[in-house]
Amino acid sequence: MTDEPGLFKAPPIAEQERMVEALLFATADPMTPAQLAGRMPHGCDPVTALAGLRKRYDGRGVQLVRVGDAWAMRTAPDLGYLMSHEVTETRKLSRAAIETLAIIAYHQPTTRAEIEEIRGVSVSRGTIDQLIELDWVRLGRRRMTPGRPVTFIVTQTFLDHFGLESARDLPGLKELRSAGLLDNRPQPGGEPEEDDGQEQLFGD
Amino acid sequence: MTDEPGLFKAPPIAEQERMVEALLFATADPMTPAQLAGRMPHGCDPVTALAGLRKRYDGRGVQLVRVGDAWAMRTAPDLGYLMSHEVTETRKLSRAAIETLAIIAYHQPTTRAEIEEIRGVSVSRGTIDQLIELDWVRLGRRRMTPGRPVTFIVTQTFLDHFGLESARDLPGLKELRSAGLLDNRPQPGGEPEEDDGQEQLFGD
Amino acid sequence: MSQDTTPESSVADRVAAEALIVDVDGFEGPLDLLLTLSRTQKVDLREISILALARQYLAFVERARQLRLELAADYLVMAAWLAFLKSRLLLPPDPEEDGPSGAELAAHLAFQLERLEAMRKASARLMARDQLGRDFFARGITQDVTRVRRVTYTATLLDLMQGYARIRTRDDFRPFVLDRDNLMTMEDALGSLRKLIGFAGDWTDISSYLPAGWTDDPQRRRTATAATFAASLELVKEGRLELRQSETFAPIQLRAREGRP
C-alpha cells in the first residue's frame, strides 16, 4: 500500500476507515484522496479506506458517493422524501407581530381592545391570524364583560419556542431594565408604578 | 409498536434504521424521537431504530450520541485531531463566565443571588447575557420564594457542546453532591435576605 | 511618610505586598483572595485554620493601607467581618449574646471556600471535556434538499422582551392627556349657572343645578359638582349670588342676590 517504509507504521486499515468516515462527515466539501491523505497520519492509504467504507455504507441510509475526483457522504436518494418538507425559510416576525405577541404573553388573557390600548394603534387582523397560525397564540376564555370579547393567550408551542417553562417566567420590567433592554432614560416623575403594574400581571 | 392496526404497515425495522440514519445525517442539530417520528411514515418506532443504529455505529468514526432527550450524529472524540482545520474559533470565555456556567450547570435551577453567594462577587451584567447568547443557559421556572427570582438552567445546546447525555452526567456531580457541596447552606445566624439580594441585583 | 520608619515597610516587604495587591485586579473578589491565601496553609480545606486565614487577610488589608492603595469596598467589608470573626474565635463565648458562635461562622466560611474551590475544579473539568466543534464535530454538510419551500416566521426571546420593553417605555413617555369627555370645567359650569340663576329666587340646593347627564355616573357627578361649586363662588364674588350652608356637610344652597337680577 505505502511505498515508503516510513518511520511510523500506518494505522490499521479499520482505523483508517474510521478516520475517513469522520473526515467526510465533518467537512463541508467533498474531499479527494489526496486531501484525505493530507489530513491523515503518514503512510495512510485513503483509497483503500474509501473502498472499505463504501462497502460498509452500501444499502444504508447514508452512502459514500463519488463527486468528480472527490468523495462525500450523502443521504440515500430513496430517502430524500423524508427530508423534502424540511426545507423551510425562516423570516423574522414583523415588529407589529412581536409587539402584539409580547403584550399577549405579558398580559394574557387579553383582548384585542386591550392590545390596541397598550400599543396605541389598531391591531390588524392579519397580525393575530399570523400568530395563531404559528400556533403561538390561541383563543382563551371569553371575557365576562359587555360584548363578551374573545381573549388571547399564548400556547405551549410558544413556551417551547422561547424556551420558557411558563409565561410567568418572562422577566419583569425591572429585570428588563437591568438587563439593558429598557432605555434608562430619566423618568419624569419617577417610576414607582411600573413594577406594581408588573406585579399585578404576575401576582395571583 | 403502534397500537393502531392502521391502513399502512410500518416499514421493517431495518428500513426504519436507515430513515433515522438519513435524517440525523441531514441535520446538524439533535432530534428528539418525536421529531423523528414526525418525519417518518406512520407507525414507525424511532426509539427502537435509534437503539439499533447506536449499536451499529459503536466504535465507528462517527457515532450516535444522546443529547438530553434528543439524538445526534457526531464524530468520535478521539479523531478530533484530524479535523483541526474545521475548528471554528469560539469566543474565549472569561473565567467569570466559565465559573458562572459551571455553577448553573451543577446547581440548576439556580438564581443570580446563589451564583453570587458561591462566587463571593456580583455577577456582572454581560456574563449571563453571554451564556444566554451562546444558547448554553436559559431561563428556568421562577423560584417560589419572596421576590420570585428568575432561575437559570442549562440547555440542550450546552449538553451537545460538552458531549453530555444529560446534566446528571456532569463530571464529579455525584461526589460534589455527597460531599454536600451542592447544598444551599445559609449563613449561620441567618441573613435571610438572599432574595432581597436578588431584588437589588435586578434593581437599579 | 511616617510609615517609612516602620519595620514592615522594608523595600522587600513592600515589593512582596505590592505584588499581591497589584494582583487584586486578578482576584474575583474577597472570597477568591481568601481561597488563594488559604493555599499557603497547604492543608485540606476542611482542616483549614480560619483564624490563621483571618489574620493573613487582615495583614493583607493592613499592608494595602500602608501602601495607600485603595481596595474595593467588598474587600474592606470582608476585612471587617473577619476581624469580628477573629474576636469571636478568640474570646470565650458570651452566654448572654445571641447569634451563631464563632465556630459556626468559621465553619460556614470554610464551607464557602471549599464550595468555591469545588466549583473551580468542576469548571476546569467541564472545560477540559471534549467539545463540539473542537474535539468532535457535527455534520459538515447540511443537506441540500431545497425543493419544498415553506416560510416560517421566527422571533427570539430577546425580540419579544425588547418589543415589550419598547411599548412600555413608550407608555412612560406618553404625554399626560386629560379625558375631556368626563370632565366639566369651571367655564362650562359658569355658562350653565349664569343662564339658570335668574330663576333662583329662592334657596335651592346647589346639586339641582348639575346639568342633565352629569348626575348618574359618579365620576361625572364629582367633576360637575366641583365645577358648579367653583362657579357659584365666582358668581358670589361678582355679587350675583348668595350661598349658605346650615352646618358642616349640610347641603349647600344658593339663590340670586336681591336687586341684582
Mean pLDDT of chain A: 79
Span between termini of chain C: 94 Å
Can you count the helices of chain C?
8
Low-confidence residue ranges of chain C: 1-6, 144-148, 173-178
Largest sheet report of chain C: 3 strands, antiparallel
Q: Judging by the overall fold, what is the CATH architecture of the largest domain in chain A?
A: Orthogonal Bundle
Say how many strands of chain C there are: 4
What is the CATH topology descriptor of the largest domain in chain A? Arc Repressor Mutant, subunit A
Description of the structure:
The complex is a heterotrimer, with 2 copies of chain A (204 residues) and 1 copy of chain C (261 residues). With 204 residues, chain A is an alpha+beta fold. Chain A has 2 domains: 13-86, Winged helix-like DNA-binding domain superfamily/Winged helix DNA-binding domain (Arc Repressor Mutant, subunit A); 95-170, Arc Repressor Mutant, subunit A (Orthogonal Bundle), CATH 1.10.10. Chain A has helices spanning 13-26, 33-39, 46-56, 80-83, 95-107, 112-119, 125-133, 156-161, 173-178, 193-202; strands at residues 62-67, 70-75, 88-92, 110-111, 137-139, 151-154. Chain A has a 3-stranded antiparallel beta sheet with strand order 4-6-5. The radius of gyration of chain A is 29 Å and the shape is elongated. Chain C has 261 residues and is mainly α. Chain C is built from 8 helices and 4 strands. Chain C has a 3-stranded antiparallel beta sheet, covered by helices on one side. Chain C is elongated. The interface between A and C is large, with 53 and 36 residues.
